[in-house]
Amino acid sequence: MKILMSLIFYPRGGSAQVARYLSRALIELGHDVHLITGTLHDGDAQHDADVFFADVPLTLVDYTDAWRGFEQGEDPLSDKWEIPFHPSYEDKSGVPDRVFYKLTDAEYAAQLRCWTGVFEGVRERFQPDLLHLHHLTHAHVAAEQIFPSVPKLTQLHGTEIKMLERLDELSGESGGPGELDHVGRGMLSDAVEVTDHFAAISRDIRERAVARLGIDERHIATIPNGVDTSLFQPLDWSTDDKWSFLQKILVEEPQGWDEGGVPGSVRYEQSDTERFKDASGDLKPLLMFVGRFLDFKRVPLLLRAVSRVNQSFDGDHPPFNLLVWGGMPGEWEGEHPHTVARSLDLPNVFFCGWLPHDVLSQGLNLADVLVAPSYNEPFGQVYLEAMATGVPVVATRSGGPLDFVVDSGPRANGWLCEVDDLDSLAATLRQALMNGSERERRGANALALVRGEYDWKEIVRRYGEIYREVIG
């Protein structure tokens, strides 16, 4: 099959990882794939789609000029740009990607003009059997204008539904989006209208899409994201291997950052990292968080739970550590996690910053437990990546992880705590920390589950079935 994909964002988030793995897996099966995607040349090679999507045929939508305009104080979403910057599903201040529902009609029209031209250019050299569109965006309307008779499948990643839920909240508040509300809602509605079939990345997203977007249950399937099990796998690391890796990411090449937003502004001395060891020189159990510093990730809650667990032990040296991995530099919502950790005086919390995906695949081998107490995580890719490394996980009873985290019985592969419940999270962390043999058992179950059901080869097979159904 000839499959045309589109992703409006430049590479930086989970959906870009999914588009990359899915495209490559489809190509390996003999399908002809072409991906339209955003790109950004801002000094970070990982934001360059040519680098990130290497070996995938691409058409690039280059946001660099608009981004540079933003750096100089101009509006990057203005209709003055030939390629205006992409909008966002999240309402954050001080960033170039303004939320969809705060676009003016003229700015939204500029997005449509840009993407209609992009699809028109692709049509001259690629005639698809099917369009696979990531998220619900203005690209749907543009694609319908250029490819009206080509079947369209939309992959729902969940962030679009989060925006709609936020719009519903704002509609009851004074000072809400008001007359601009129709841009966000209208865009979602138009994208749904032109889609022939949907793939939701979790049962939770499927149920919320049916309820919030009015999608016919017959036209939406649940297909999870996969894991590259050749990249994410257990490594037979010794204590010295782990120690050397920790020295590299925390002391030699630090990328942690504070409220100044500068990578490397949080750094450690080798004497600081001695806290990773116990009295015998072995490494203490290590909790690990991986992700962006967004509100729904609940990183400050995790830090307060660590403080609570610390208080349950005697002495000044808690018998475990937490490594906070991630945080897109300069991006956070609510309290900054590093500021919270300092205010709580947590001697056993370390920040290593945002590091590339291939480094993460190694770094997960440091962890004894991955913990991410998110509220309504749309899917939870990093949980599966940890599980593919043989690491059990701690999640909350909400969102995508409920599809694959089992917290009791012979198939248990992690722990579930209550949402936004400090006592529950602290008790769950303590339970996981105090039983090494149970961590090993649950980690082995996690590894078996991912290898059996979440390898990208299996996920792509399921997409192939849906493609054939939609094409007819």
CATH superfamily of the largest domain: Glycogen Phosphorylase B
Strand proportion, as a percent range, falls in 5-15%
Task: For the largest sheet, list the strands in their spatial order.
Answer: 3-2-1-4-5-6-7
The assigned CATH architecture of the largest domain is 3-Layer(aba) Sandwich
Largest sheet: 7 strands, parallel
What does this molecule look like?
The protein is of the alpha/beta class. The chain folds into two domains: 2-226 and 456-471, 3-Layer(aba) Sandwich (Rossmann fold), CATH 3.40.50; 239-453, Rossmann fold (3-Layer(aba) Sandwich). The chain is built from 17 helices and 13 strands. The chain has helices spanning 14-28, 49-52, 64-71, 105-123, 139-146, 159-171, 181-194, 203-213, 239-252, 270-273, 299-311, 337-344, 357-363, 381-388, 422-433, 436-453, 456-471; strands at residues 2-7, 32-39, 58-62, 130-134, 152-156, 197-200, 220-222, 286-291, 321-326, 349-353, 369-371, 393-396, 414-417. The strands form two sheets. Strands 3-2-1-4-5-6-7 form a seven-stranded parallel β-sheet, with helices on both faces. It has a six-stranded parallel β-sheet with strand order 10-9-8-11-12-13, with helices on both faces. The longest helix has 19 residues, at 105-123. It is globular. The relative contact order is 0.11.
